[in-house]
Amino acid sequence: MKTVYFYGDSNTDGYDPRGMFGGRYPDDACWTSIVQKKLSGSWLCTADGMNGREIPLRTSVAAELLAKRLADFPDLTLFAVMLGTNDVLDMGVPDADRICRRMEDFLSWLSGYFRAAGSATRTAVVIPPPIKISEPGGSTFTKAMEDLQELYRRLAAHEKILCIDSDAWGLDLAFDGVHLSEEGHRQFAEGMVRALEDMTE
Fold first, then answer.
1. Using alpha carbons only, what angle is made at residue 91 by residues 53 and 153, rounded to the nearest 5 degrees?
2. CA 37, CA 45: separation in Å to the nearest integer?
3. In 3-state terms, what secondary structure has residue 151?
4. Distance between CA 46 and CA 94 in Å, rounded?
């Protein structure tokens, strides 16, 4: 049985932006659960999504907590990280180059962690969904995410790690232009299933 650890933000957690105070889509509508159901005979999926999560710094509490969680998965097949959206949104003037450098440092930290643990775990960068905010100024974030997506592709190629490009899946977004809709979760799950199945061939 292969194992995958999905590490991400609210789009990994299944955040539903329709409620006044937020919430989650039904568990069986979240892409991580759909993937697990479709690949139950070959993959065991662990979802670690958190609203607002940004790319951890190697010296941060977030990195320390992740290391403790990963200690419970000594035989992990794949660690798939999908982060960067909140990094874009939380910058007054989004800087895709700066965010990509932070991801590069995080990947270096991961590589060091797995090497020290004697683990053969593969790492994958999952290209985050686009940002399509219709409000004034939204185009700034849209463009920054487009730039970041391309930088991630180049980073994955340079580091010779797996790149799972969700931007190629035509994902449907919720009204806020940031979070996946329920249909978007279904589409994302279909794409991720194909990506994981390709790894088994």
1. 70
2. 9
3. helix
4. 31
Residue 140 has pLDDT above 70, yes or no: yes
Q: What is the mean pLDDT of the chain?
A: 95
177 phi-psi bin (left φ>0, alpha ψ -120 to 50, beta other):
left
In 3-state terms, what secondary structure has residue 173? Answer: strand
16: DSSP letter: -
Give the alpha-carbon dihedral of 191, 193, 198, 201, to 10 degrees.
-160
- Where does residue 137 fall: left (phi above 0), alpha (psi -120 to 50 degrees), or beta otherwise? left
Q: At 20, which amino acid appears?
A: M
CA distance to 11, 111, 138, 153, 194, per residue, from 166 (Å):
12, 23, 21, 11, 11
| pTM for this prediction | 0.96
The structure tokens listed for 106 are 């995080």
109, 66 contact by CB (below 8 A) = no
Q: How many CB atoms lie within 10 A of CB 186?
A: 17
Q: Which two tokens stand for residue 105?
A: 């440092």
Cα dihedral 153, 158, 159, 162 sign: positive
pLDDT digits (tens, 9 = 90+) for 91-117: 989 999 999 999 999 999 999 999 999
